[in-house]
User: Fold these one by one.
Assistant:
Number 1:
Amino acid sequence: MPRSSELRTYYKKRDFSKTKEPRGQKHKGAGHRFVIHEHHATRLHFDLRLEAEGVLKSWAVPKGPSMNPHDKHLAVMVEDHPIEYGRFEGAIPEGEYGAGEVRIWDKGTYEEIGDPLVDQIRAGKITILLHGKKLNGEFHMVEMHGRAEDEGKRNWLLFKHKDEYADEDWTMKPILDYGSRSQAPQQKKKKETQKNALKRLLKASKSRTRRTA
Ligand code: MN
């Protein structure tokens, strides 16, 4: 984890001739956007991104955020992403870093409670107020001690503060109907609706003439 916000690692991990992810650049200004990406990579996870120092500070959250204050979910800090990434949705091609579908699961703005976000990150303790469509109210992030599995990555716990927005019955609902890229065909089949089955049959009959085997 570099000490100051920068995009070097972000660029190093990606081939922009292959992926449609934005190259972007470090910005000036002090915006306070937040984005949660739903990312169907090898494993489904959610990426929490908070704007600070002209970039998006980013965490991969395997189970995603929760409005239930009893859920304390692992959040692995990853490389800073450009502000432009906040608008990105689509498929990262097979063979590229993070290959799989990406959707914006939620977005909005955040407020720091206390020190500026970068100082809170440095201190390993974050309290923010989210103003999103799905996520609202106060959230905490606390850095876990001990050596991270991957050097340069820091492990945190993300959890909802008990406030008027907290919901103990809350469940995560992904936008796309499959758990991960690798499970997609199997799960899709299971959840196939009659309408989709009909579509598939029609498509199959249309392409039958083109088939050689
Ligand atoms: Mn991701």
Number 2:
Amino acid sequence: MLTRIIKEADVKRLKRLVDESRKIVVTTHMSPDGDAVGSSLAMAAVMTTLGKDVKVILPDRALSNLMFLPGAKEMIDAKQYPDFAAGLIADADLIFCLDYNELKRVGALADAIDASSAEKVLIDHHLNPGDFADPVFSHPDQSSTCALLFRVFCRLELFNLIDRYAAECLLAGMMTDTGNFSYNANDPDAYIIVAELIRKGVDKNMLYERLFNTHSENCLRLNAYAMSKKMEVFADGGAALICLDRSELNRFHYAKGDTEGLVNKPLAIPGIVYSAFMREEDNYVKISMRSKGDFPVNKLCRDHFGGGGHLNAAGGEFDGTLDEAARLFRSLIDENKKKYIDK
Ligand code: 5GP
Ligand code: MN
């Protein structure tokens, strides 16, 4: 039996909103990951079974290794079809906002969502939810939006409508947001949910193969190169940094998603408590950070690298060159040690 975490009043309100809605739009954050896509597709599947007219709209393309998920090919990429996406959002009577806490996480879709007269419902596990939706199901203690969404379905008495395909999407999100249950994975309830999803017919072995163990040759070589030639280790400061510039990415025919997980690797070294990965984009630098224990990479990203996130997993978009971002990171190592490690 799952412990109860969702407020009854919010369940009641959501039930009414779903009952009264006909056209539903499901949205999620930019650079949609497994949890974003998994929760969106599961929501779409269950709402479609309820007889609703449902569209999933992504701010930009999802990682290609997620496109095998049931229903993924019907998702609408708003970058490719901006007017179509804006029209659907304006026309909707209910908009689900999944796996993001603030409208700025949906990029160019933010204005359309803000302007739509549709009711908005937020279901998310990031800290500090904005106040653009009602009800807000914000549970940062949940390791994924997919785990939280399973709970929401149960509370709405829709458990029986979760078919094998929706279950596959939910488990995909739970697996990707926990590194296949290797971090944020100490919640016993999560395993009750996994058991229920597997009982629905999900092949977890297949999901692992598709989500974690399928890479192109270029991707494997790029990661090997990054580890052997580009990893800087600052043992005294407990830090590590990997930077990849455009020419290096091009040499290995970089495709979106190829460096997923790379930032975690240096944390395997005893004594390294935080790690940064920086990738040169066209006019900014994409920053990813991970940490162990109570080192707050979200603060580091927020204070210096134009972003934010969770305590142990954060990111940002740095407005400057790759060299500047790397120099800034190195220059903060001593201060970080005093502030967050030796404190
Ligand atoms: P990733 O390193 O996988 O891109 O992102 C890890 C986490 O950091 C995300 O789940 C998100 O919470 C946060 N994050 C990543 N990029 C950004 C960003 O540009 N801005 C903010 N505010 N958070 C980000
Ligand atoms: Mn998530």
